[in-house]
Amino acid sequence: MEELEHTCPHPRTTLTEPAIFARETSCDCLAPHEKLTIAQARRGTPVDRPVRVYADGIFDLFHSGHARALMQAKNLFPNTYLIVGVCSDELTHKYKGFTVMTEHERYEALRHCRYVDEVLRDAPWTLTPEFLEKHKIDFVAHDDIPYSSAGSEDVYKHIKEAGMFVPTQRTEGISTSDIITRIVRDYDVYARRNLQRGYTAKELNVSYINEKKYRLQNQVDRMKEKVRTVEEKSKHFVYRVEEKSHDLIQKWEEKSREFIGNFLELFGPDGTWKQVFQERSGRMLSYALSPRESPCNSPPRELSPLRSPSPPSPPTRWHSARPSPPTSPKGASASISSMSEGDEDEK
């Protein structure tokens, strides 16, 4: 059993290295190879070796549709060893047409697909029993659409009849033909793109006139891009100015409302200034109508009988003596009565 484990390759458990190339002379699997049915393979038997599944194709411009088909083939059974056959340029150009990638580029693309365990170079266009026996192939995986080529309505017809065919599903919306159609449809765009990237007109098989036309179009596009950039910057600047203006107007309105409110609070009909003015006016009016009285404890003014009043001093040159006005009406009447009494004493 241990010898079988060393002589039979197992599916890769890591993705640190690319897939191996198949030997051209013989298969690496030396374990006893018994014919399996699909039901047996799905149950996980046999236990001493993986189920060897073969998938072939051109794989030009390797894309996600190819990878999904190989993923399905890899997951057909619990223990699958996936061998991928890639046809050479000679066979492909003869039966299908010219390829974009060379055969060596296509080999390397398949080696670095995570689902592939082994790559078989220069795969045959039609699978023969001798080829299947040589590589110990249990099942062949491909989409079940009849593939007419090389004078046959379906090159997988005899595989299907032998019960060795397992179908996979195509991925709609992507294929090598679709990708090439996009490039051909937008040929001018890609030619201009590569001219911009430094490729020469000779490398692109572009005529002198078309080269000048493409370069002129590239200059026009650059000018359009600059104008578009300036427009975007202008729009951004105008937007910033409008935003600032809106903020300034809003702040001005707030300050105006605040100023008007303060003004009305001071000078309005019920404002603070009116109340202060009314209070001061009432106070002044009350002072005018009822002036303060002189102190009642002040002694009355009397003239001494022994001493006559001194004559009034003559007025000086610079100052004139004026009697101070009485502070109140009672004070005025008291001074008048005292003066009359003094006159009577003198008489």
Automatic annotation (TrEMBL):
Its EC number is 2.7.7.15. Keywords: Lipid biosynthesis, Lipid metabolism, Nucleotidyltransferase, Phospholipid biosynthesis, Phospholipid metabolism, Transferase. Pathway: Lipid metabolism; Phospholipid metabolism; phosphatidylcholine biosynthesis; phosphatidylcholine from phosphocholine: step 1/2. Residues 289-347 are annotated as: Disordered. Pfam families: CTP_transf_like. GO terms for molecular function: choline-phosphate cytidylyltransferase activity; phosphatidylcholine binding. Transmembrane segments: none annotated. The keyword Lipid metabolism applies. It catalyses: phosphocholine + CTP + H(+) = CDP-choline + diphosphate. Residues 54-182 form the Cytidyltransferase-like domain. The keyword Nucleotidyltransferase applies. Belongs to the cytidylyltransferase family. Catalyzes the key rate-limiting step in the CDP-choline pathway for phosphatidylcholine biosynthesis. This is choline-phosphate cytidylyltransferase. It comes from Solea senegalensis.
